[in-house]
Design a protein that fits this description.
Elements lengths: L2 H10 L4 H4 L11 E3 L6 E3 L7 H4 L4 E3 H17 L3 E7 L4 H15 L5 H9 L15 E8 L2 E2 L22 H16 L3 E2 L6 E3 L3 H7 L16
Parallel strand pairs: 2-4
Antiparallel strand pairs: 1-3, 4-5, 5-6, 5-8, 7-8
Helix pairs in contact: 5-6
């Protein structure tokens, strides 16, 4: 079995657009709150598109803030030198639509119809089911000091080796991915195994992954800063 065949098998196991579209939402009305840095929890906004809206701050839903704080406390117990770095949370729905539109245009000569939506979703989620615009999804990594641990690829490196279970990375990087996945899931986050850094709570992806009857968070048009 060659490399591409292995990537294909991994991709087949991942949930996609058609898995999420029918998941109902019962909004619970939780507010978006800024993530506050703590001893084992740091933030660093890496998307310049969000700077005009939120500055350097990262917003997520209230329960997501609490769960991130729980992960930080678990890290403190496991290894006080490790820090959970959050680099992305809420994304404006307008930005999600624009990014999706651009990626869809790149792929339109190769796919059409539902296949085009599925193909685009692998890179940029279809806005109607996307987690970041709900404030329920986060992109995270573990750092020690000022440097990230080796995860095999950089965060936001959209390549097949960023699949969580890619067998083509070093053992140390594999172990770091599994540690991150395990500690985030222990706090109730759902992983997206197409991107080792992406986790969510309360959105359609979380609901589908854990077999919940509905998602808790709807997409939000704006974010309030204070």
């Amino acid at each position: 079995m060659n490399k591409e065949e292995i990537y294909h098998l991994l991709e087949e196991k991942m949930l996609g657009y058609l898995d999420y579209i029918e998941v109902p939402i019962q909004p619970n009305g939780e507010p978006l709150l800024p993530i506050r840095s703590e001893v084992n929890l740091k933030i660093r906004q890496i998307d310049p598109h969000m700077l005009p809206l939120t500055g350097e701050q990262i917003y997520v839903r209230q329960t997501v803030v609490e769960k991130l704080q729980h992960v930080a406390s678990l890290l403190q117990e496991y290894d006080p030198s490790l820090i959970l770095e959050v680099v992305y949370g809420y994304r404006s729905l307008d930005i999600q639509r624009q990014l999706f539109k651009e990626k869809k245009a790149e792929l339109k000569d190769k796919f059409s119809g539902t296949a085009l939506l599925e193909a685009t979703h692998k890179y940029i989620a279809v806005p109607e089911v996307a987690g970041h615009p709900t404030g329920g999804a986060v992109d995270v990594q573990l750092i020690r000091g000022q440097a990230p641990l080796d995860f095999g690829t950089k965060i936001w490196e959209f390549a097949e080796d960023s699949f969580t279970f890619s067998p083509f990375i070093k053992k140390e990087a594999w172990c770091h991915r599994q540690l991150l996945r395990r500690i985030m899931m222990s706090a109730g986050f759902a992983p997206f195994d197409g991107e080792w850094w992406h986790f969510s709570y309360g959105d359609k992806e979380w609901a589908k992954y854990y077999g919940k009857p509905c998602a808790l968070y709807e997409q939000l048009e704006i974010v309030y800063t204070s």
